[in-house]
Amino acid sequence: MKILVSDSMSQKGIQILKNAGFTVDVKTGLPENEIVKIISDYDAQIVRSATKVTKNIIDAATKLKVIGRAGEGVDNIDVSAAKSKGIIVMNTPGGNSHAVVELTIGYLFALARNTFLANKTMKEGKWEKKKFEGNEIKDKVLGVIGLGKIGFEVATLAKALGMKIKAYDPYINKEKATAAGFELVTLDNLLAESDYITIHIPGGEKTKNLINKDSFAKMKNGVRIINCARGGIVNEVDLIEAIKNKKVAGAALDVFSKEPLPTDSELLKLDEVILSPHIGASTHEAQEKVGIMIAEQIKEFLLTGKAINVV
Ligand code: NAD
Prior knowledge:
The protein is α/β, with parallel strands linked by helices and 311 residues long. The chain contains twelve helices and twelve strands. It starts with a strand and ends in a 7-residue tail after the last helix.
């Protein structure tokens, strides 16, 4: 059987598939029309986030049984087109969670000590020692919105660093959160009492603009916000206003309502904001882990029909 790997993938993952006897073709960066021409040769396709698996590709696939996403989000795959042809789509939930957790914890410290700004000003030839008196995160309240795989681990590490954890997640098992020493609260209570707020809920219509003008009005003056979840959950226009009127002392954003972030975005001009281009899952370790996970899952499915982590 033949497998097309359309985005770069860990060598260990590729080796797992080859060792199982599959023919693996790694052809990255192909445009849609090129994939359409060759896809009928393949039993499985593996992608990360770059390749868009469109309806055109799916329509042209005559042997394809499974599409594997090395990662979690499947926004780049036309899942309903795949489903209607009986093609399984699978992903690797949790495979990159720890990478996002570490980025979030890094942003907590960066916001507390303004290291990103100190670095920038020193490179501009300045020595602004007084300006950079920071804060300590110990004994501060961290509000965690969403206590899933990432949120729970962020909360656990932040608690170990001496922070008090208030969490809002209407769907979480209360005993588990309480046993971990987190206080489950309403969203309003979290907004009102947190020194730092970090967001770890799914994106999409249901959570769009969850953090908006009204939410900022309920927060403490000088609050700091981290969003390494999905763009759109924090209303960017309202955030910019809240930073300008000093309600929000700092924000770290890895995700944006429009990606890539437009070059005229005002977020780029605010010193209080740390930005990264959606790199939450981009660590060597996470990419290796999701590559191995998807390879094992595809191997299992093609050899035994057992489908794991079906979307
Ligand atoms: P998860 O599904 O394990 O956890 C999400 C949690 O949010 C669940 O416990 C759920 O009950 C809770 N939730 C859902 N809606 C809610 C709401 N309205 N209010 C409060 N809680 C709510 O997801 P995860 O793996 O922890 O991922 C969290 C987020 O991080 C997702 O948006 C995911 O797409 C994102 N993510 C980002 C990157 C990146 O590169 N920055 C990488 C991986 C994941």
